[in-house]
């Protein structure tokens, strides 16, 4: 009993002196004093939190402590700044370990130094003879580190809103005119059948750094691969099976008309063979720079205020080509006369503005539920670019080209008359569930939605109303009434599959 009482007093003296030494070092300006931990970090310890020695010197380890610290009066105050020991005379307290102390009996001490992974619990000289004391496993030195940077990489599987356009390619049975107002005419591309809307792949990357516990900065970039839809005749086709044409509204007759691509026996027309291709594509990307500030926090809960700069790019391109080759000359022209018509309409939308919103996370064990809601406000620069051309070859070597196709009148690439700037907003929402399968790596699955209220799309700004006499050989100028710009809305949404790395 007397031995146990003496040992407890020595341990109390040791604890008091260690505390005094630590406080003394702090008073001398050592603001980075680090406490060490002798076992596994507690489950509820947060990154950067100070944790303390939890060695239990009672019961089995009493004799071990007694043998290590025989004279409490000889102990010197000690503190640690980083890995630097202030004071002397006391063995280095154990740091954070990968696992707790492993204590073995004398049988493991036959070599005198307990092997490379162990050290003697008491001094036994050059050899312990296999029975002079206990061994303890050397811990791996390491400090609790705070993760202040993050990298998030996500694969995007998104669906973009389908886009509308007038009927661009039509067909009817052989011998019937493929005009929109003729019974039996169907649309091969455009019209009531919307373009796009299929799943598009992309990626998103988010990189940032916490400057303090309450404030951080970051940047985000995401991009969707080209969303496209096309139709093609697959080469030169004749009109024996069906009539194919490019529809327009003819101001000369005040009704629908069409440029024949392939036809046989259509009343009032010679026969033609030809080909067509039509394609619509949409590209979207975004770049952001933001700051985040903690607003609310609690046990496993945090909500940050987000604010920063936003930039979006939305490009919509529509291209149609057609070739018509005359195969009869009963009504005029020559066999072999060829007409090539090309139309391309591009719209560019460039958003520059700010963003504000909230980023909230709830953590339970290894699971984290995150939500991001924000709105982008700013200027949308809208640019229209259209080019149309007709090329006529009379089969005898005479080739004539002129501006103006069926969809685009002339060349507007070098003008800015149709460009406008609009104030617009774009709400965005994201929710994801993440699982932490390693200390600094998480995998996530989520859903994202973003909507732009004012964009310029090519299909909505097609003007196919003009005088049909112009599309003849020899070339004649096209006359087209002025059309109004039409603004539209656009959204995209879908699934996110991601990986988050903190370091």
Question: What would you note in describing this structure?
Answer:
The structure is a single chain. With 503 residues, the chain is mainly beta. The protein has two domains: 2-101, no CATH class; 149-502, Beta Barrel (Lipocalin), CATH 2.40.128.90. Helix content is 7%, strand content 51%. The chain is built from two helices and 21 strands. The strands form four sheets. A ten-stranded antiparallel β-barrel has the order 6-9-10-13-14-15-16-18-19-21. A hairpin with a 4-residue loop joins strand 11 and strand 12 (255-262). Helix 1 packs across helix 2. The chain is elongated and about 85 Å long. It comes from Rhodopirellula halodulae. Residues 1-25 form the signal peptide. Keywords: Signal.
Key descriptive features of the protein:
503 residues; mainly beta; Lipocalin; 2 domains; disordered N terminus; BBP7 family outer membrane beta-barrel protein; signal
């Amino acid at each position: 009993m007397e031995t146990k009482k003496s040992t407890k007093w020595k341990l109390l003296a040791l604890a008091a002196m260690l505390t005094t030494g630590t406080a003394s070092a702090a008073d001398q300006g050592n603001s980075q004093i680090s406490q060490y931990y002798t076992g596994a970090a507690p489950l509820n310890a947060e990154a950067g939190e100070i944790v303390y020695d939890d060695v239990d010197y009672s019961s089995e380890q009493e004799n071990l402590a007694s043998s290590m610290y025989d004279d409490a009066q000889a102990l010197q105050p000690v503190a640690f700044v980083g890995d630097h020991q202030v004071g002397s005379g006391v063995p280095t307290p154990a740091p954070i370990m990968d696992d707790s102390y492993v204590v073995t009996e004398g049988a493991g001490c036959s070599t005198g130094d307990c092997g490379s992974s162990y050290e003697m619990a008491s001094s036994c000289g050059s050899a312990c003879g296999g029975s002079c004391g206990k061994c303890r496993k050397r811990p791996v030195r390491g400090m609790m580190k705070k993760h202040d940077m993050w990298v998030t990489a996500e694969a995007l599987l998104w669906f973009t809103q389908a886009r509308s356009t007038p009927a661009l390619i039509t067909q009817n049975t052989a011998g019937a005119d493929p005009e929109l107002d003729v019974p039996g005419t169907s649309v091969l591309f455009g019209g009531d059948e919307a373009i796009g809307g299929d799943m598009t792949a992309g990626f998103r990357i988010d990189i940032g750094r916490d400057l303090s516990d309450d404030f951080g900065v970051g940047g985000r970039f995401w991009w969707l691969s080209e969303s496209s839809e096309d139709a093609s005749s697959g080469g030169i086709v004749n009109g024996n099976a069906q009539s194919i044409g490019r529809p327009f509204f003819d101001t000369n007759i005040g009704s629908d008309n069409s440029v024949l691509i392939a036809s046989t026996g259509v009343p009032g027309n010679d026969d033609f063979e030809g080909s067509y291709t039509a394609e619509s594509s949409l590209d979207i990307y975004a770049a952001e720079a933001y700051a985040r500030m903690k607003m609310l926090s609690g046990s496993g809960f945090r909500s940050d205020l987000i604010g920063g700069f936003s930039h979006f790019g939305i490009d919509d391109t529509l291209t149609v080509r057609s070739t018509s080759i005359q195969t009869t000359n009963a009504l005029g022209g020559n066999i072999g006369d060829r007409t090539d018509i090309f139309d391309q309409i591009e719209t560019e939308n460039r958003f520059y503005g700010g963003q504000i919103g909230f980023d909230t996370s709830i953590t339970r064990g290894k699971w984290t539920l995150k939500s991001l809601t924000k709105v982008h406000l700013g200027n949308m620069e809208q640019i229209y670019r259209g080019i149309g051309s007709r090329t006529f070859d009379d089969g005898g070597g005479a080739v004539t080209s002129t501006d103006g196709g069926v969809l685009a009148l002339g060349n507007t690439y070098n003008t800015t008359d149709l460009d406008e700037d609009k104030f617009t907003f774009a709400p965005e929402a994201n929710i994801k569930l993440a699982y932490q399968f390693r200390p600094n790596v998480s995998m996530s699955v989520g859903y994202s939605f973003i909507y732009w209220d004012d964009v310029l799309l090519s299909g909505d700004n097609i003007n196919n109303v003009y005088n049909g006499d112009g599309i003849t050989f020899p070339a004649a100028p096209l006359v087209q009434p002025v059309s109004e710009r039409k603004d539209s809305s656009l959204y995209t949404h879908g699934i996110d599959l991601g990986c988050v790395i903190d370091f």
